[in-house]
Design goal:
Layout (H helix, E strand, L loop, with lengths): L18 E8 L2 E8 L8 E2 L3 E8 L3 E4 L2 E4 L5 E4 L5 E4 L6 E8 L7 E2 L1
Antiparallel strand pairs: 1-2, 2-9, 3-10, 4-7, 4-9, 5-6, 5-8
Length: 112
């Protein structure tokens, strides 16, 4: 059994300058844990793989395409490959999001 703790996974450098930690890393999928402090956000970007966001804590704004929704804890949002998406935390509380990419992304995301 492999057990990974978010607090033990090292933060990864990223163009968004937010706390991103890789929890799962296989060819079939990749899982990242993102913590957004109040006012922080990801830059709009596209990925060449399918992505889903599962909100663990907080109520971030999630954009997929041109649609933006404030999403509560325990909600999953799908984002198909090659569609602009981003997450922002406009609340006064921390937001934590599990992001899963399938299959694992082999090329860089494109900032838009």
């Amino acid at each position: 059994m492999i057990i990974t703790s978010v607090k033990d996974a090292p933060p990864r450098e990223n163009p968004h300058q937010v706390d991103v930690r890789r929890l799962y890393n296989y060819a079939t999928a990749e899982a990242m844990h993102i913590t957004l402090q109040p006012g922080e956000s990801l830059k709009p970007h596209t990925t060449p793989v399918d992505v889903f966001f599962y909100v663990l804590e907080g109520a971030p704004n999630i954009q997929v395409g041109e649609e933006i929704k404030t999403v509560a804890k325990d909600i999953l949002v799908e984002s198909p490959r090659n569609i602009k998406h981003c997450i922002s935390n406009q609340s006064e509380s921390v937001a934590r999001i599990l992001v899963v990419k399938s299959p694992k992304q082999l090329t860089k995301s494109i900032l838009v």
